[in-house]
Amino acid sequence: MNTLLLDTVAWDLVLDANGNIAVASAPYALAQDAASAIRTFAGEVYYDTTQGIPYFGQILGKFPPVSLMKAQFEAAAMTVPSVTAAKAFITGFANRKVTGQVQITDALGATSVAGF
Question: What is the pTM of this model?
Answer without folding.
Answer: 0.90
